[in-house]
Structures are given as C-alpha cells and as structure tokens.
Design a protein that fits this description.
Order of helices and strands: HHH
Structural class: mainly alpha
Strand content: under 5%
Number of strands: 0
Length: 79
Amino acid sequence: MAQTGHHSTASAPDRPLPASPIAQRVGQLLSRLHAWRTRARRARELREIDDATLRDIGMSRTQASFLAEHPHDGSRIGT
C-alpha cells in the first residue's frame, strides 16, 4: 500500500502534551504582564475620579491615591 503523505489522526494523543519549561515561563511572564497592565489601568482610573464622586463613595483623595499606588495594601485602609 502506497503512502499518500497524509498522516492519520488516529495516533494523536487525546490530551495536550505538557508545555515545555520555556513555554511555561513565557506563559507566566504573559500572565504577570497582564496583571501589571490591569493594575496600572485601575490605578489610572482611580486617580481620575473627581473629588465629589470620591466623597459620594465615602473615600478621600488621600485614600484613592494610596490605593492607586498600593493596590494590594488597600484592605488596611480605615483600620
């Protein structure tokens, strides 16, 4: 029987192959970059809120500035 150059998919694994260490590292870096960009966008949006709106939500400009610069420490505000 002559081969036609087409490969059968019957021998393909049912699950994806494990990622190489380099692919895993690239994935981690992309995930961190996405998180950094998200935090940066949220910080910018928080800095852009006007004082009247901040008062409406019970937050001072100082608190908003702190949260914009320290997003992980926000739970300590007001304690």
